[in-house]
Amino acid sequence: MLRILGKKGQSALEYSMLVIIVIGALLAMQNYMKRGVQGRLRSSVDGVGEQYDPLQTTVDITQRVVGNTVTSITTQNATGGTETLRNDTSFMTETKTGTSRVDAQ
Questions:
Q1: Global pTM?
Q2: 100 contacts 58 by C-beta, under 8 angstroms
Q3: Type and span of the H or E element at 11
Q4: What are the residue ranges spanned by the domains of the chain?
Q5: pLDDT tens figures, 10-33
Q6: Nearest CA to 95 among 67, 58, 68?
Q7: Which residues of 12-49 are buried (b: 16+ CB within 10 A; e: fewer)?
Q8: 3-class SS of residue 65
Q9: Closest residue by Cα to residue 58 from 24, 100, 19
């Protein structure tokens, strides 16, 4: 009966050693797996193109303002016979062009 108990202990020891070896191998491969995933992610991000950086941006600005004003004044005085007529017409165009740059501090 001692022989059977000794073999059960040896079998349990062999299984536990096998589990420890498998866990150790997975832990050792963990860094390689991380690097592989990070490399694939990096290549995907590089494929997207140049990224937008809000701290270093150059913007070309063109602003155009167009206005049209018509003023008409009519005054009539029934008792004195005075009459004032005024017609003003103005047309305005304003164009601003420039560059705005935001730099990191």
A1: 0.33
A2: yes
A3: helix 2-48
A4: 2-46+54-102
A5: 788 889 999 999 999 999 999 888
A6: 67
A7: eeeeeeeeeeeeeeeeeeeeeeeeeeeeeeeeeeeeee
A8: strand
A9: 100
